[in-house]
Amino acid sequence: MLEFDTNIDGLATIKVIGVGGGGNNAVNRMIEHGVQGVEFIAVNTDAQALNLSKAEVKMQIGSKLTRGLGAGANPEVGKKAAEESREQIEEALRGADMVFVTAGMGGGTGTGAAPVIAQIAKDLGALTVGVVTRPFTFEGRKRQMQAAGGISSMKESVDTLIVIPNDRLLEIVDKNTPMLEAFREADNVLRQGVQGISDLIATPGLINLDFADVKTIMSNRGSALMGIGVATGENRAAEAAKKAISSPLLEKSIDGAQGVLMNITGGMNLSLYEVQEAADIVATASDQDVNMIFGSVINENLKDEIIVTVIATGFTEQEISPLKQQNTRQFNNGNTLTKVPPKRESLREEPVQEAPTRTNTQQPEETLDIPTFLRNRNKRR
Q1: Cβ pair 166, 138 in contact under 8 A
Q2: Residue 256: domain span
Q3: What's the total number of domains in the chain?
Q4: What tens digit of pLDDT does each residue of 225-269 get?
Q5: Quick check: is 214 in a domain?
Q6: Residue 7 placed within a domain
Q7: Are 23 and 40 in contact, with CB atoms under 8 Å apart?
Q8: How many degrees, rounded to 5, is the angle at CA 101 between CA 34 and CA 47?
């Protein structure tokens, strides 16, 4: 007789580590939201801020260097603090199959320590995903430059990196939206991605996805898109798929993705046609030679809702471009995605066109940090 090991301990271990003030806040809000199936770790150089963390593991790094007083917005101090506490970090991350490192870029601890922590996780053999924010333009050029350096270091230290520009928050909220609610929107990108992957691994599906599939799509793949779409009603499958691939907060669109992991979860009434419709929308928006790994789960607790989870990777550097607001509107106004050509070459050419010709030394990353209306004004001069 065949015997199967159904021990729940066989599931992949996922750890989420928040670094610095921004990372600690993101972890707190995930815990408040009740995210299950993951372990939370909070890391900071500021002992006072760390005391406010709700994570089960709290780690003060660089205590000899900073004496618990923070990094003073100096990334070099954050980096040295992480290196000082390397053994402590290794111990906390050991045994993880997947590690999410989240931080706000531009300050001291997050910018300096997050790349070191990500590299430690990767060296331990964990699939390592970075989810970081780029500071608001109004925070000043120095903070923008520090953030650009931190993001560059993160790209070298993680398997995949997701960047959320805080300026995008101004596009999705009105002037009366409370600040806490606005930042919660940015945290939702991380929360939904972590919960989505945790559910994929833990929930057996009709068409099953496991951790090996997640690893295939996300190992050593550079920049990534991670999104979840939820919809109800007559066109629920199409709407959920569009929402999953068109988050206005992400720094890129799915255009040009060479690897896509997609899962569709629905109730007992989920139809084969709906599964095909959602999969077609995601495939059409990706690279024509996309490696698509697909799964489907029936959840009896879902009645009219469909949930589409998408992880997209494998973008070339030329294809990494900000998701324009007009594309977001196109997804959200009810038009079908088939009206958008699968290859949107103009999107990939825009960073080159927008770079001012009179300053050849300016880097593309710096150009992206300048709001569009300022770039246009510079061009007219």
Answers
A1: no
A2: 224-339
A3: 3
A4: 888 899 999 999 999 999 999 878 877 788 888 899 999 999 999
A5: no
A6: no
A7: no
A8: 80
